[in-house]
Amino acid sequence: MKKVIFFILIFIIICFFIPIIFTMKRKTEEVLADIQENNIEEVAYNYEEYSNIKLLHNETNETEEIPLDEYLARSGMRRNACKL
Description:
Layout: H1 2-23, H2 29-37, E1 52-57, E2 62-67, H3 68-82
Antiparallel strand pairs: 1-2
């Protein structure tokens, strides 16, 4: 019985603790410096450019320009209609 418990404990250590030990990331001063250097600057987007989108109808190969809000409202209604 002691051997079985011993093997189970060894199995748990091998399966769980060894991968945890090897995947731990150690934060050094170099890593922290790299993170601080790579800070992303905030960019101001002009969302007015994205107010209209062009849809391509596959059957007729025609494009239709509609407001983005209308497109999102229509696609949301279609998704909700499929839910039972």
